[in-house]
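Supplementary Note 3. Input sequence used for the single-chain structure prediction.
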Amino acid sequence: MLIQLAGPLRRAVNALIAAVNRLDTSFSPVDTLAKLRAHKFALKDSIYILHMLSALFWLTLMEVPPFPYKLVIPVLYAIALLIPFTSQFFIPATPVFSWVLMFYSNQFLPADHRPAVHVVLLPTLESVLYGANISDILTRFTHPILDIIAWLPYGVIHYTFPLVLAALIWLFRPPALRLFAKAFGYQNCIGVFAQIVLPCAAPWYEIIYGLTPAAYGTPGSAGGLGRIDELFGGEGYKRTFASSPLVFGAFPSLHAAWATLEALFLSALWPECAKWAWGYAAVLYWSTMYLSHHYLIDVVGGACLATACFYLLVPEELRNGSVNEAGDKYERYDLESRRDDGFGLGMEEFASDWTVSDGEETPIAYRSPNPAKGKGRGHRHTASIASLIRADERAGEEGWSPIAGAGFVFPPESRR
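The predicted structure, written as discrete structure tokens, is reproduced below.
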């Protein structure tokens, strides 16, 4: 059935179908083992040894769930890696899982093996570097409207935006998805490691306890988000932050790091969205301080961490915005889109440069331009520009010629 769709929705449907077609739908571990045997290991693959050692360390420390129930975690992960359908998601997300495991299990580190919590360090550095405690200034005046404005990016969008952005990249810029997962995961791993080895109290601690020394048993605080709980008559944020696995993780701000990395990827992949992405990041920077969760130096540290990961882990061609693999050939080569003859969106519009015919797949570039002499293998659209590049080198290949065929006439004859 043919359907008529608007331009943006039409592109979204095309991208979704193309993304689904790209998926490896095999559930056979044999296929994964075959790929593993064929894989040529390089030095960069040694990073997975580090991931395994890290997982072993944090799983050993983990007390909840206790042994042997916690063994379910590595068993399920191993199964996910063996199945091709799930491994295509789990392997690129390995840095993200490493961060989650580190973030959760660090609470089980013995207090006598942890470094002392720094309470005075951040406010002192803030006053020295910026001439004042910026976070303290921003929290002096509060209002329900400002609370809502700060809450939305900090307490809602922050947790959902990475998933939304990953989905958009998967649909429209698939080559960049692995890079986003890598940068996002390693950024968070570095950030949490820094928070563990350099524990620092957030502004809410100074507001509640002053500059008195902090102990690891101190419960976390929702800070300004407590006003959101009061506004909506709940205690969700108070309970969540009170049981946080990492209470003294003010520096660097991963809220700021997430927003910065998201803005960098959006600016590179969709330059027209750059101003909105950085506008969101700016509001989130402010909200971290307004809600008394971070000092300005924490925000700067998080933004610098994200920027460093982006420029170190993302190749230059993507940073320059040259990745646009999801568009069809008309968009990719700036060609006029094919007319739909008033029929709307048919299934032929979803076809790629590979078309199934007579039970086999044949590249369209190798098919006869004259359907009458092509043994029944007619095609619905012309060969892409990419297939005509360096045609002189392919002229000797059987069954292909850029100009051969009885159907080719030059100059073209009028069909009227």
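The beta strands are 354-357, 360-363. Residues 325-384 have pLDDT under 50 and may be disordered.
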